[in-house]
Each structure stands twice: as C-alpha cells, then as structure tokens.
Amino acid sequence: LSNKILHQILRSNKIKFFFKEDDTIFKTLNFDDLDCKKLKKNGYSYHKNIVSKKITEKIIESSEGLNGIYSSDEYNSEKKEKLNQENLKAKKFAISSNDLINIPEIQDIVINQKILEIAQDYLESAPILDIISVSFSFPNKKNDSNAAQMWHIDLDRPKWIKFFIFLNDCTSNNGPHKFIESSHLTSNLPKEILKKGYKRIEDNLISNHFNEDKITSFVGNAGSVLIEDSVGLHRGSQVLSGRRVMMQVQFSSSLFGAKKEAITFPNQMTKNFKEAIKNYPRIFENFCK
C-alpha cells in the first residue's frame, strides 16, 4: 500500500517518444493494449524469438571479457573480478550497469522506442532507466539462495518493470526463470508469505498456497523477451547442464528507495542513444557524468 501511495506521489507525466531511426531490434515485438492489460493482470508477458541471434551473441561475447561479481551461498566476490569459466568460484556471475552501458547493442536496447513505451504504459509514468545487468548461471547441486534460485520478491522502488532478454537458449536443464501468476498483486499473497518480506521462501511454503498451474517456467530460444513485474514471486531454477545467460533491464517510476550506484554516461554512444539523452532527459535521471 505504501508503495502504491509513493508511486502516485512521485511518478511524472508521460512522454511522447519518437526516434528517427527505424527499429531493427524489436521490430517483431507486438505489444498492444490487450497485452498491457494482461501484463497488469498476470504480472508478466512473454514473447519468443524477438532479438536476433547476431545481437544476443554479440552481447555475450562483449560481456564475457568484463569484470563482474560472483555470488553463491559458498562464495561472494569482495570486488569485481574476471569470469573464469574453467575455474568457477561460484555458480552465478553478474555484470553491472556501468560495465555494460559501453556495449553499443545494449545502448540501443535500453532506449528502444517499443521498450520505453511498454515501460511507460505499465508504470503510468515516464520511465527511468534504473538497472542493466547480464548474469551467467552455471550448474550446481541445489538451488542457491544468493544466486536468486529460491522464491523471493523484489522491493527496490515504489514501482518498476523488468525486461529479461534471453541471451542463449534456455531449456528445462539450464535454469529457466519461474514466476507465480498474479502474485504481484498484494491481495493474492497469503499473510504467511507477506510476513516473510524480502526473505527467501521455501518451495513447500509456496506449494501450500499456490497450485502448480499458477507457476510458469519460461523456456525459449535466445532472443526471447520476458516482461515482468518482479514484485511478484519469482526465482531462477537450478542449472543442471550448460549455462544460462540472461540480460535484465529495469525501468522505474522514481528513484526513491534502495540506494543504487549511478550509471556513468559512456564515452562512445550510438546515434539513438545520443538522441535519447538530448530529447528525453527523464530516462537518464540515474546517470552521472
């Protein structure tokens, strides 16, 4: 309830987006008023085979050489370090906004007109680009709490929306993301779970309150896009073989809440990114020079 009140106070007027360049990344992403209603009702909207393999492979290639943070129940990085896939220190490796924003393909994704319009329609506010991440998940023997493989909710801002972009093919063996339908609505959460707050939630507690048909497991080819209100119950799955590579982009209605590292403007920018900075400064409120 407090989040809803804060959102209404802090949200801003909507923006009319217009980019001169034709959309070459999300041209097959069809999202209309009915899709928006379903997103608000169910908490998610899933679209397969949207981003080209050429772009997803380029993002993986560019990300693998960047510094990031290992996280697991056994080991967490004290500072950024390189990913060594021959000698993994933990089962999850994540790269943050400031390192990713220099990748041209990511610049054009985060200011894509379709993505911004979807975020704005859901938030009912001009969107602020809040978080960008790319995470690598590797095989482990059990679900890992610090690798976000147990049920939980996010609570960083009054209101936000996330775009998960599958950078490699995701099957039932390499850690599909899971979400409980309509659990983003507080009225659908049992008090026993609400009292848990931001703590990880065991599978048996979830099964006590939600039928299996309410839990969706998202598998799909590289380039699939999941749009999700992650205040709903969600988790990654245990990776049995291979690896899962996932990109996340979060837009928020305001920056009230958790203190996050500001994103530094990149030295090299694509044409569309420069245009967005000039014409839509609201998007970049979480950026600094």
Protein architecture, described:
The chain is an alpha+beta fold and 289 residues long. 25% of the residues lie in helices and 19% in strands. It contains nine helices and twelve strands. The chain has helices spanning 2-10, 33-42, 53-64, 97-100, 104-110, 113-123, 191-194, 203-209, 271-279, and strands at 44-47, 69-71, 92-95, 128-137, 160-166, 177-180, 215-218, 225-228, 234-235, 244-252, 263-264, 287-288. The strands form three sheets. The chain has a seven-stranded antiparallel β-sheet with strand order 1-8-5-10-4-3-2. Strands 7-6-9 form a three-stranded antiparallel β-sheet, with no helix packed on it. The radius of gyration is 18 Å and the shape is globular.
List keywords for this structure.
about 20% strand; globular; three-stranded antiparallel beta sheet; alpha+beta; seven-stranded antiparallel beta sheet; about 290 residues; about 25% helix
Topology:
Elements: H1 2-10, H2 33-42, E1 44-47, H3 53-64, E2 69-71, E3 92-95, H4 97-100, H5 104-110, H6 113-123, E4 128-137, E5 160-166, E6 177-180, H7 191-194, H8 203-209, E7 215-218, E8 225-228, E9 234-235, E10 244-252, E11 263-264, H9 271-279, E12 287-288
